[in-house]
Each structure stands twice: as structure tokens, then as C-alpha cells.
From TrEMBL, chains A, B, C, D:
Protein name: Alpha-hydroxy-acid oxidizing protein
InterPro entries: Aldolase_TIM, Alpha-hydoxy_acid_DH_FMN, FMN-dep_DH, FMN_HAD
Cofactor: FMN
Superkingdom: Bacteria
Keyword entries, A-Z: Flavoprotein, FMN, Oxidoreductase
Record has Flavoprotein as a keyword: yes
Pfam families from the UniProt entry: FMN_dh
Family according to the record: Belongs to the FMN-dependent alpha-hydroxy acid dehydrogenase family.
Domain FMN hydroxy acid dehydrogenase stretches: 1-361
Amino acid sequence: MPVAAFNLRDFESHAFRTLPAAHWAYLNGSAADGDTASANQQSWQALRLWPRVLNDLRPGALQQTACTVAGRAMAHPLFLAPVAFQQLAHPDGERATALAAAAQGAGMVLSSQSSTPMEAVADIFAAEPDAGPLWFQLYWQGNLARSLSLVQRAQACGFQAVVLTVDAPVHGVRDAERRAGFVLPEGIRAVNLPAHPAPLGLADLLAQAVRWDDVAALQAACAALGLPLWLKGVLHPADAARAVALGVAGLIVSNHGGRTLDTTVSTAWALPQVRAAVPPGFPLLVDGGIRRGTDVFKALALGADAVLLGRPQVHALACDGALGVARMIRLLRDELSAALALCACASIADIHTSHLVPPPADNSLYA
Amino acid sequence: MPVAAFNLRDFESHAFRTLPAAHWAYLNGSAADGDTASANQQSWQALRLWPRVLNDLRPGALQQTACTVAGRAMAHPLFLAPVAFQQLAHPDGERATALAAAAQGAGMVLSSQSSTPMEAVADIFAAEPDAGPLWFQLYWQGNLARSLSLVQRAQACGFQAVVLTVDAPVHGVRDAERRAGFVLPEGIRAVNLPAHPAPLGLADLLAQAVRWDDVAALQAACAALGLPLWLKGVLHPADAARAVALGVAGLIVSNHGGRTLDTTVSTAWALPQVRAAVPPGFPLLVDGGIRRGTDVFKALALGADAVLLGRPQVHALACDGALGVARMIRLLRDELSAALALCACASIADIHTSHLVPPPADNSLYA
Amino acid sequence: MPVAAFNLRDFESHAFRTLPAAHWAYLNGSAADGDTASANQQSWQALRLWPRVLNDLRPGALQQTACTVAGRAMAHPLFLAPVAFQQLAHPDGERATALAAAAQGAGMVLSSQSSTPMEAVADIFAAEPDAGPLWFQLYWQGNLARSLSLVQRAQACGFQAVVLTVDAPVHGVRDAERRAGFVLPEGIRAVNLPAHPAPLGLADLLAQAVRWDDVAALQAACAALGLPLWLKGVLHPADAARAVALGVAGLIVSNHGGRTLDTTVSTAWALPQVRAAVPPGFPLLVDGGIRRGTDVFKALALGADAVLLGRPQVHALACDGALGVARMIRLLRDELSAALALCACASIADIHTSHLVPPPADNSLYA
Amino acid sequence: MPVAAFNLRDFESHAFRTLPAAHWAYLNGSAADGDTASANQQSWQALRLWPRVLNDLRPGALQQTACTVAGRAMAHPLFLAPVAFQQLAHPDGERATALAAAAQGAGMVLSSQSSTPMEAVADIFAAEPDAGPLWFQLYWQGNLARSLSLVQRAQACGFQAVVLTVDAPVHGVRDAERRAGFVLPEGIRAVNLPAHPAPLGLADLLAQAVRWDDVAALQAACAALGLPLWLKGVLHPADAARAVALGVAGLIVSNHGGRTLDTTVSTAWALPQVRAAVPPGFPLLVDGGIRRGTDVFKALALGADAVLLGRPQVHALACDGALGVARMIRLLRDELSAALALCACASIADIHTSHLVPPPADNSLYA
């Protein structure tokens, strides 16, 4: 019997009651005081829609939410964000989220810390003709050779792009996680990565952290493989411009869901700054705090091509496995449909910044 | 024994305790997180009055709240907004609200989803010599012929204007309603409309949604009938200007009480934008969040000719039927009287934008 | 045994527990939702002090809070505001507040709705050599003759100025008072006024409300008597300028403690606007929401010559009669002393607008 | 068994439960309503970080938090602020905080109201080769001779600078302290000062308060002793400029933790104003509300060379004595390390104002 969920927050309430406290602390926790995790949500919600009326909505109908992301047609602009160790949320783990994403036409970015072999996930997507994009998230493995070996294995089994995370050279101040005494339970681990002999100290982490010259080398290698390289975790226009100059395929505006550094700018604030710094049409995704169809609409109005969902997929997964995640995606897509109609947009392409009231220029709402 | 109510919010508290939960969820519910429903109220309250003193108030006296709306004299600038299925709130339904409105000189806009025959409502207004305007709210019926047939029936029994709702091509994300499992109880239905064979799906809704060319055709037809056509649900100045160009009689600035799309601009924010886009003297009404006489005063200071009351009429109706609604109207009118005197305005015509502190130009208070 | 009170808010907590609910509703209540009553307090508190250091404080010492108000030397810039029917708070009523004010060197403005004969209050002030100013608050009595008769009686027994209230032509929307069913108890009434045959209706109130030409006539009459005339309840610079042009002695910036019209501008917001509209050195007082010595300091920094205390005197009176009011005045004076020293001001004359951070010019903090 | 503390606020929660109420009221209390104490914390937190990515972090590693304060190398930019009577928090008092500071390489400013002989503290620092700076806080002793005698004694036993507090000519309105009836318990006193015969009254306090000419004289005397003189408690740029002109070694931007004057500007707001008023490179420290590594990062981005910790040292001291304070320092340093890495700063020197979103220029966030 599936949980009663009428919106994404309902899944969160159920998951909180369902999951062991330490798993919840890891999966849902955020850095320090949780200010950024909270501000991400509030910033989307605080943006005001300025709806239009009476436009012709007939062209929309079933194709209303259809869109193109980096040249690929999708049924809607929703991706599952990379989330590590999904077996913590549900025994089916990444298999369940992949089934749901593939069935619903959502994109999926598999974490390199997946608790499920990447090949199993790729097989699920391969079996679904209408599946969306399947991408592989990469944590830099200390050097190019090790990183590339992972990338090549992902490409071999069917992943279509690489998403390099650049905002997490260290783990972040995860008070909730430490307070709960979270450790990975027996049997759950990053099965696609070589086992670490021991956790790295700060000096080692800093020494191995990915750098601009690593990105350049990886970009060249990916180009040689014909594999698009995305960077995830860019918030500053200067970094965005530098990444574009290196030839990356796209950027994901993200603050890691507030899990690494607290009190950063919200992604709703950063997105238009980044959009202004990249060429017209350059592929941009955004994550962090998306909970409503109106949030998706606003992200697109501010220049994103699609959005990624992190915690909501975990919440739904914890509640009902693949079925929960599928319902979560469907709920959000339906809300987006309603938002489009109620703003008199026949399609995603009709969304425009003028559908938002301009926020104050002086940052007084920058939370 | 009538409920103890000293202001409009008191009726709300009583109604919440009185009504079945599912009826409350339908009647008082709003879209998604209720952000717009709440912001509507807060935005009026946040506006600051800058009172004047010592003007001559003698001319006011009993005619103090008298006003003219679209050329018609009224005792005060209060209308009952269209609310569907009022028998959900009280067995007397629309008969009760009509009795109260007529007795108090308020205008009334009957919903096309009235649970009472429109003729019965018209008869009540016809029997009261001092009744205010009686208008008919129209949901587009898929084509001009069906829509016009409803309009002609309304005109025939005495309705004096048509109010076409343009902000609800789809139903909105009504979480509370769905969570409560609301369905229309046996015996309550839209008696003035043909029974729907089955609820429409999204594709059909979008295909049948009213469009600008429909408005043009309806406007021409109404003009031929000598019936003023208003549009309800306009928030954007560009849409307002386009509607004016089509020759409509007036506009109602509304976000449907926050029941269709959440996180839209509040009506207090949108009203002056719309006022600036229409010709001087063009009839404008506004609804959403009006709970105090000072709210009415502020709406008029920002350019409205009158205001409409949605949920407050339902609350009062649920408490005490016609008597409750009449008391609600009277309370609000008395509060408006006090506000006029305390701003040293002898009459409605003395209300001016300079009675408000200009809100910040940068939208930092746009909630 | 006096109540334990370490600041003005402590008296409020005690009084709330002490007074009958209906008396509390009348004495402490405010108009409508209490937004203005609350904003008055918050607006003072929200202003930020920008302290200086290391100035020579020796000249200050005991004369630190000494000041001059409209040409008269005072030990400190504190007045008791006019409050009606003080026997509702304590059997000793206005006798107690007068004893406290006289003993502490505070000014006092006796309400024309005093429950104690004005002569008794005047006698108390006459008996105290170091007493501050004693003024008489006047509600317009419908015409000049009746008003003047009251003024002359006040002058005869020793009152030194008249304060005409101009912001209360009607009573205001006092929900709390009506909900509590407040009526004046047997034995408490406005003993200095002729008994009203019956409460006046709105039409009569508006017809008798004081007007600019009445003020001109009263000013001429007071000038002939050598009695300074103040206006209380001015918020708008245009009204202030007009009053100055009529020759009044001073103005009290006030919104009646939020008891008449709700959601007006706060007095902290209005004060600098009024100061900018009157000649340099023109006497200005302010009331509404003053609870701390820092509030007094801020009011003086924004251009007030002194402040008046309304509810705090009632709270202290209800707690401990004259002793309570005396302690309240002393507490506030001591807090003002500390604020002066901690801003490195040797005296009141050293207070300057530059001791405040300029609030935003765009009204975004205008609550 | 040490308390479970994962961040600085955890120590506060434990200390609140551990300390006698009156000690808590004194140690943690603030002036009046605690508005400034609270705003200090909120203002740091409200500042938004704008992180960069992918810079080379290898140079950082173990020397990542190393910095130079007024010419002296330190392992990190953390100081313990002067706090009086630390035996109120823990029997080990200042010995414990000194042990912790010395072991962790933090600077320490010993209060002249230390409950421990200054020589004992100096010995602890002398015994630790990697100890940070040890400074002596001075309350003006009424005249230069008495003040200098204290300074010379401090220099003799090893203190390396003098910090003159200039923001506390009087005690402040400490409601919580008075409500709790706090008095120094038997056996705890300012052992380095001559016993006061009796508490001073206001007139005496004002007469003895330190003045600009005293600072000039003290500065000359300290220069002769080769001892740097800092001023603590400066918030206004004009005062900062004047102090610089007198030749002081550095300034501490402080509002005394909100313990003297309530509703002052927060130190996060004042810091950049003061930085703009002093020469480039002029030593500036700041305290008040620092609770997170990101707060330290922000303070440095706004122009501070280091920060001081007041209440957090008391909380940790109350919990676990020297061990608690050492853990508190270490936690904060680790958080600063994480913030550096996550903003892609290899070292303190890489921190720049551009890592912060500019706050609104109009003070609308000045709380």
C-alpha cells in the first residue's frame, strides 16, 4: 500500500518516520546549520510568478512539458541528481530509482558512489525505449588515469555523459551526521570504486582535489571518447566562463544541496548570474530546493534547461521504492503542466523571465 | 443564536470548527502551499496608511461610503465574489448570500457553478429596491454558442453584466482538497450547467480553454446584447491593455484567491501595475485577501473602484446563513467608515494614493 | 511588596495578570489586529545605534539627562501621555500618576476623560517644587464655547498648556474591547466633562469632529489666554506645516498608540518626516511604543524634544499605584542615562542623527 | 566524559544546563532585550558566501589556516576574548582557558577582571613553545598612574600587548543579571585589581571614564615601554581614524558582545565601515557572534585579521574546563579549514571580499 503523498513534501514526512535516524541524518542532512539547504527551497518559493492569460494552449496538450536538453529531446525537464549509497534508503537502491526514471522519461545522473553496479543501472535504461538521458557522476579519483578508467567503464556500459563534481574537495561540516554517529552499514558500499584503504586526512584530500588543469585534461580525454563532460557545483560566473572556455558540454548550478558549505548563495540566486556569463543556448542545469512544479517553471524562467532532484528522490525511494520515485516524478511533472497552463504557456519554450517579478537588485532577498 | 464575530477573521475561526473537514478543504483551500492565499492578506496589511487630520467630515455622514462603480451608484464598494457550490457551506447556499447582499446593498457575482438556479438568485435581487449590481460569472463553455446560451439565460432573468474568468484553464494543484478526498456530495451540483459526462483530462481542458479570440467574439456578442463584459483574473498590465483594446467593460484584478497557481504576485502588488496600464477612470475591481476596512481603503487608494469578497462570504455563510453574510458585509462597511474618518476623508472620492506610504520600488516587499 | 520589575515590559506582564480582562482589553487594547501598536515598538527597536567612544563625560554627571522642552527646563525628557479613566487601572487613578510624575520631574498631560477632578491633579503638581510641566489634553467639545470653557477651567487651576487631540474623530475599531464586552464600571467616569445623554452615532461624531477652522479659532483664544496650544496626533508633514502656520506651540507626533486606526505608519517612521517639515527648533514630542532608554535616545536623535509614555504608565499604575509609576519613570531615565554614556554623549544636547544608522530610504523597514 | 559537542552551539546548550542560573545570567547575559547579542550572530550568518571552485589547494594543506596578525605568525586567526571572572564558569577559571589557548595556538586576551593572577596565566603561555599571542585587557583605572602600574605588571610577567576597552564607561542595562540577583560569590574576585571600597555611582563612573586624552597619554607610555596598545570597542569609522592618528597598534571592532548597549549596529555591519577608514594593512580584529568557521571566513573577507571568541569560550569552559575550550578552538579551526577548501582558497591570504555577495547598500539587512 503506497504512502499517501500529494506533493513532494509528503514523501519527506513519511521518509523521516520510516528511515533509521542515522540513515536519515546522512541522506537528508546538510552542512552546519542547514541554512543553505533551507534557503534553496525558500528562494524558489519567494520568487513571484506574474501569470499571463488567454493564450492559445492547444499546441501544448500532451507535448506541453516536452523539451530539449543539450540537443536531446525529453518528455519533461526533470533529472534525478546523483545521490550516493541509495541502498541506505531502500534495499532496491539505485535499481529502483533507475526503473522509475526510465519509466517516467526522466534523466538520471548515477553517483560514482552508487551502491549498485553501474552496469545494472545502465541495463535498466537500455531496456526502456522512452528512457531519458543516463549520465555518470564522477568524483575525481586523484589522477587522470584512475578517473578516466571509471569514465571509460561507464561509457562502455551505456552512460552518455560524465558529470564531474567540483564543489566537494572536502566533506563539509556535517553536524547531524556526526551527531547521529552515522557509518555505512555492513553490505552497503561504493561498489563501482576501489575500496579505500582508509579515510583520507585533510592534507591528502587537498592534495588530490580536482583542479582546473585536471578538468582541461579530462575534457580533452572525454572529447576523444566522444563523451560530453559536465561540471556540477558551479555558482560563480567567472568559474562558469572559465569552464565554457575549456569546452565543457554544460554546467550544473549547484551548492551540493547545502551539504558541503553552509550559508552559500542559493541556487535560485546564482542561476541568473551564471546564465548571464555563458553563451546563449549554453546548456545549464540547476538543483537544490526544487519541490514544486512552480519551482521548475521558475528555474526555467531564470535560464535553466532542466532541473535535478536530490533529496526528493531519496524520500520517495524510502517510502515506496521504484513506485514512490515514479510517483514523485509524475507529481512534479503534473504540477509543471498546471503551472504552464496557468501562466498561459503552451510549452516549455514559452517560459520567459517576464513571467517572474524581477527580484530586488540589491540582494535584499538573497537568502 | 448568531456566532460572536467582531471582525471577518472571527467568522473564519467559527467556520473552520463548523464545517466538515472535506468541505472546508474545498471551500477554504488554496493551491499548493497556500503561499499566494496568505500573501494576498499580508500584502494589504503590510501597506502603511499615512493619515491626514482635521478635514471637514460633515459632507460625509451617511453618504460617506457611497461610490460609483462602472457608472452605477452603490452604497459602498463591496461585492461578493463568485464562489461555487455554496450549499457546501450552508443549506441555503446562494439564496442566503443573495439575500444578504441585496439587503446590504452589496454587489454580487454569481458563480456559473452555483448550486442554486440563477433565476432564484435574480428574483431575490429583483425584490430588493436598494440592491446593488447583480452580475453573472462565466466559465467558458468550450465554444461561443454554449457560452452565449448561458449568458442569454442570465440576462433574461436579470443579471446585469457578465464576468468571464480567464485565470483557470485548469484546476490548480489543490493538495488540501485531494488530501481530504473531497467530492461533491449527493444533491449538490452546478445546477445551471449541463451535467458533464465525465471530468475532462488535461488535453481536453487545454483544447477548450478560453482564448483571446474567444474573448473578442464574446465581447461582440455581449455588446450586441447590451451586456457589459468583464474579465476576471488579470494580473499583468499587458493583458489588461489588450483586454481594454477589445472593449471590455472592466477588469477584476485577481489571482483566484490563490486557488489556482501558487506563488503568484499578490493582488495588492498587481493592482497599481494594472491601473497604470488602463485609461483613467477605466473600471477596475480587485479581490484576494481583503479582510479589513483598511484593506478596502488601501485597494481604493491603489486604484480599485470596489473590492470583492470570496472566502469571507463563505465563512459567514457557514456560520449563520444569510444573517452571517449580512453581518459580515456590515462589519466591513463600518470598518471602512472608520478608516475614512480616521484618514480625514469625507467620502470615498477623497481617498488618494498619498494616503499610503509608497512601498519600496524594488519589490523587496512583494510577498 | 512592589512587583519585581527590571524594565517597562515587566510591568506589562504583571498588569496583564492583575487587571480584570475587560479593563485590560480597554486599557491595553488597540485597533483591529494591533499591527500599529506592535509596529510602534518594533520600529524603535529596529533602529540601529552607532555609538561613539572616549568623549569627555564629566560635564554630564547628574545633569546628564537635563533638557529643555518648549523653553522649559526639565530633569529629563519624559512625559506621561494622556490616558483616560485611570481608575480602571488602580483606585488611586490620576492622583497616583500625578504624584509619581511630580516626584520624578516628569511632565504630565492629563486626559480630558480623567476619572479624577483636574483640580486635584493640579494641586499635586503645585505642591511639588521640582515638578515638570502639567498640560491638559482636550477633546473638542463640539464647539468653541464648550471647548474653551474646559480650557479656562484647566488654566485656572494651574495647567500650563492645552493639547488638542486631532486623530480621533471616531473611536476606532476596537475588537478586543468589544469582544471583552467592556463598559465603564459604576463609579468611574469622565468627571471633568458634562455627562453625555447618550453615545453619539457616526453622523453626529462626524458633524462635531474638530476641523482646521476650529483649530484656528481655538489657537486665537488660547493666545489671548496666554496658553500654549499643542496638537496631538499629527503624522503627515503637510498637516504639520499647516499647524505651524496657524501658530500652535508644538506638535505631538502620534498615532494614538495604535488605538484608532490600524496599519498606520509607525511614529518612529513619521517623526523625521515631520521634523523636516517644521522650522528648526520647533517643539516636537512623540509617543507610541517607547519602552527602553535607547528608544528615548533614538526619538531624540530623530528630532523629538521629549517623549510621552502611554501604556507603560497604565501598566505600572496597575501594579503598584504611584510607587509603580515612579519606578517606571526612574527605570526609563536610568536606561537613558546609560544610553547617553554608552554613546559617549555627555548630555541630551550631544545626541545627533549620526548616532543612528540611516534606515533604508525606500521604506523597506517601514513597519 | 566530555560533553557531546559537534559545534560551538552544542557547548552553549550544555553550559546552560550545567551552570547555576545566576552565573549563567551574568556570563551569558546581554544588555536589555538581547537584540544586539542576537543580531551579532544573525548578521554573520545572513552574509552569503559565493564560493569558487577548482583552484590549486596543494599549497594549503597543513598551513592552510596560518596567518599573520600585527606582524606575528599564528597557526590560525582565533583569539579568546577577554572575559571576566572565569571561575564562575569552572573552578579552573582562566588557568583552563590559558592552557587550552596555548595548546591550540590561539591568542588570548586576559581580562583585567581575571579571577586568576595574571602571572599564573603568563606562566602557562610561557611553557608552551607554540602558544599564540598573550595580551592584557585593561579597564582604565581612573588615572594614568594606576592604569600604567597594571600595564607594567602585565608586561613584566610576559604579556605582549595591552587592549584598552573603550566601550564600557558604565555597566549597561543588564536585566537578566539583575533579575537573577547575581552577585560575585565568596572567593571569586578580580584578583589583579585593588579591591574597590564600594561600587561607584553614576557620577563617579562618568568622571573616571577613559577619554581621548587618556588614550593619548597611555599610548605614549606604552610606546615608551615598547608595548603595543590596542583599543577594543570601536564601531564608528571616525573614532577608528582618530585612534589610528594617535598611533595605536590596532583596533578591535566590538560592541562588547551586546552586553553594554542594546540595539547597536552588529559587528559584521560595522567591520567593513571601520576597515574603509583605516590605512591598508592596519591591524583589525572583530568579535561578537562568531560561532562557525564560515563566520570567521566572512570576518576575514570583510577585512578582519583575526576574530575573538567570548561566550563560546565560557560555554566550553563550563562544560569541560581546559579540554572543552581546546575542543571548541579545534572545532572552529576545522570548520574554517573546510570553508577555505570549499571556497577554493588554499590559504587565509586567498580570502577576498568577492567571496561574499555584497549586502544591500541601503542597510535593509543591518540587523
